[in-house]
Amino acid sequence: DAMVIQNPRYQVTQFGKPVTLSCSQTLNHNVMYWYQQKSSQAPKLLFHYYDKDFNNEADTPDNFQSRRPNTSFCFLDIRSPGLGDAAMYLCATSRGKDPPSNEQFFGPGTRLTVL
Amino acid sequence: GQNIDQPTEMTATEGAIVQINCTYQTSGFNGLFWYQQHAGEAPTFLSYNVLDGLEEKGRFSSFLSRSKGYSYLLLKELQMKDSASYLCASVDSNYQLIWGAGTKLIIKP
């Protein structure tokens, strides 16, 4: 089945220790998104790629970086995690950016705990 | 600014009908999505409206009024598995999704 896969599902890291979250997709979608979601809050868009074109949200901290080496894979790097970075990180894909191709398909998420 | 408002929490009874409202103020408008999110899981797509009116999909229907900046999600014949958060997301002029914080729906037997 075509899907969005995130690994790991649960990640524990220490304060200040770099961590990488991964996302892969078999949908062959052009757009990939990374969201941060804290409990009972809206998903917050961190960045998105339209193919190789990287788009960083203005309020995304420099501590967060992303890589998309090919169509299928996208990585979220947190250089120095702080306690406030503990959250669910959601990867999503869409065929395009214009409706209705911008329907987003989500992976199961990675729950990050920072000790 | 851009803003999406929806109630924080609602409670309904199994078998009943519930309507979850969403109002939006975004720079430009290119449609509105509803997603369902069970606790600890990823959001899943429910509906997309870009034209005024009601769209029905089985037990779920979604309504849009562009002139009022208003949408609702209607859930009929509620089942226990419908307990989840329901997120409204408006598409702005840059085709970005502006997300609401979600409405937590609690279903009681």
Keywords:
heterodimer, A: 115 residues, mainly beta, seven-stranded mixed beta sheet, B: mainly beta, six-stranded mixed beta sheet
Order of helices and strands of chain A: EEEEEEEEEEE
Beta-strand content of chain A = over 45%
Unreliable spans of chain A are none
Largest interface: A-B, 21 and 24 residues
Specify the overall morphology of chain B: globular
Mean pLDDT of chain A: 93
* Radius of gyration of chain B using CA atoms only: 13 Å
Shape of chain A: globular
Largest sheet of chain B: 6 strands, mixed
**Tally of DSSP β-strands of chain B:** 11
From the N-terminal CA to the C-terminal CA of chain A, the straight-line distance is 36 Å
The N- to C-terminal Cα distance of chain B equals: 40 Å
Report what the structure shows.
The complex is a heterodimer of chains A (115) and B (109). Chain A has 115 residues and is mostly beta strands. In chain A, the strands form two sheets. In chain A, strands 2, 4, 5, 6, 9, 10 and 11 form a seven-stranded mixed beta sheet that branches. Chain A has a four-stranded antiparallel beta sheet with strand order 1-3-8-7, with no helix packed on it. Helix content of chain A is 0%, strand content 50%. In chain A, a hairpin with a 6-residue loop joins strand 4 and strand 5. In chain B, strands 2, 4, 5, 9, 10 and 11 form a six-stranded mixed beta sheet that branches. In chain B, a hairpin with a 5-residue loop joins strand 9 and strand 10. The chains are: A mainly beta (115), B mainly beta (109).
Concise summary:
Chain A is an all-beta fold. Helix content of chain A is 0%, strand content 50%.
Question: What is the secondary structure topology, with strand pairs?
Answer:
The complex is a heterodimer of chains A (115) and B (109).
Chain A: E1 4-7, E2 10-13, E3 19-25, E4 31-37, E5 44-50, E6 53-56, E7 64-67, E8 73-78, E9 87-94, E10 105-106, E11 110-114
Chain B: E1 3-5, E2 9-13, E3 18-25, E4 32-37, E5 44-49, E6 53-57, E7 60-65, E8 70-75, E9 84-91, E10 97-99, E11 103-108
Parallel strand pairs in B: 2-11
Antiparallel strand pairs in B: 1-3, 3-8, 4-5, 4-9, 6-7, 7-8, 9-10, 9-11
